[in-house]
Amino acid sequence: MVFRLCKQQARKRVLGEDMTDISQAEEKTRVHEEKEADHHPYFRPRDAATLILVDRSGTTPKVLVGKRHDKVVFMPGKFVFPGGRVDKADYRVPCAAPITPELEANLAKGSPKTPASRAKSLAIAAIREACEETGLCLGRKAEGKVTKLEGPWRPFADAGLLPDPSSLFLIARAITPPGRVKRFDTRFFTADASAITHRVEGVIHADAELVELVWVELGSKPLADLHPMTRNVLNELDTRLATGPLRHDAPVPFFHFYGGKMQKDVLS
Predict the structure, then answer these.
(1) How many structural domains comprise the chain?
(2) Among 186, 188, 190, residue whose Cα is nearest residue 256
(3) 134 lies in which domain range?
(4) Using CB atoms within 10 A of its CB, is residue 165 exposed (0-12), middle (13-18) or buried (19+)?
(5) Contact present, 197 and 138 (Cβ < 8 Å)
(6) How far is CA 124 from CA 38, 98, 162, in A?
(7) C-alpha to C-alpha distances, 93 to 116, 137, 150, 156, 165, nearest whole angstrom
(8) Mean per-residue pLDDT of the chain
(9) CATH number for the domain that contains residue 168
(10) In this structure, are residues 150 and 12 in contact, taking their beta carbons and an 8 Å threshold?
(11) Residues 126, 50: contact at Cβ < 8 Å?
(12) What is the tens place of the pLDDT at every residue in 192-206?
């Protein structure tokens, strides 16, 4: 009991330090966004997908983050989750299994409704971006003759795999505020680390977009430097993980901006 109490007190001290770091980071981001918003006209957000891989093998869940190269233009040296915008070809990629009806229903929520074809594209984009940026592939052995896959999907074909979106869960949706050079309508997915079936060597190196991959405990200090919106999503994930196994029937938050302020709604 004493040992457990000491751990709780230590965690509170760490969380206190993290909250200070988070507040400072949020202030820097707010000032930067206000300056940026003064210089750019309205841009329509583009569909994008992010994948947060979770390792629940220990007492505290860990998430996989990658450290960006310090020479890149966008968020140099920062820890990020793999993700990017949807490609036109994502819908046409053959899959080992379809997305679950529950996931498709969650992706369809909001206004305007997302059609089934776009829902598949979003889920597949999350898998593609994860493989491209981390070398980690969520796939399944294909039955029969493997369809020839090229470009970013070549690692799947080389391993005899097809992408498998059946393990994905939708955690949140967020739209970049107006006035930014790049605006994205991002769906944040999560999947258990056990869904990783193949690793491509040589993706992470000193000259790559991501120079390091790290499994980090939720609530730990390295995550304090993430973008405030990403931290909001992580808080949602942390809350859902605390209730037990991930479920498709949990509320899905929608973060967006209205009147210059961030709003949080629930997709319906």
Answers:
(1) 1
(2) 186
(3) 2-266
(4) buried
(5) yes
(6) 35, 10, 11
(7) 14, 14, 10, 11, 12
(8) 84
(9) 3.90.79.10
(10) no
(11) yes
(12) 999 999 999 999 988
Q: What are phi and psi of 37, to 5 degrees?
A: -65, -20
**CA separation for the pair 53, 76 (Å, rounded):** 22
Q: What is the distance in angstroms between the CA of the first residue and the CA of the last residue of the chain?
A: 44
Give the pLDDT confidence of 58-109 residue by residue, as tens digits: 999 999 999 887 877 667 778 889 999 999 999 999 999 999 999 999 999 9
Contact 170, 188 (CB under 8 A): yes
